Amino acid sequence: MMLQPTKRMIELRELMDREKDPEKRKKYDAELTKEIRNDPTRQRLKKIFA
């Protein structure tokens, strides 16, 4: 089963890819990680398979 990224996840990934400043890249990466951890589908699957 392949999980599709949300629009926000795609947006953050694109911003991170375009950004040259390492500090801003870290900020985008942290926000992307938070989005992934808070995704309800991923949480449900984690509970099932953990």
Question: Can you walk through the features of this model?
Answer:
There is one protein chain. With 50 residues, the protein is an all-alpha fold. It contains 3 helices and no strands. Helix 1 runs antiparallel to helix 2 (22-37). The two termini are 16 Å apart. 2% of the residues are buried.
Poorly predicted sequence stretches spanning 5 or more consecutive residues: none
Morphology: elongated
**What portion of residues is helical?**
over 70%
Summed up, the helix count is 3
Radius of gyration: 13 Å
Label the structural class. Answer: mainly alpha
Give the beta-strand count.
0
Strand content: under 5%
Largest sheet geometry: none
End-to-end separation in angstroms reads: 16 Å
Q: What is the mean pLDDT? A: 90
SSE string, helix = H, strand = E? HHH
Q: In a few lines, what is going on in this structure?
A:
The chain is an all-alpha fold and 50 residues long. It is built from 3 helices and no strands.
Chain-wise SSE layout:
Layout: H1 7-18, H2 22-37, H3 40-49
Features of the shown structure:
50 residues, mainly alpha, 3 helices
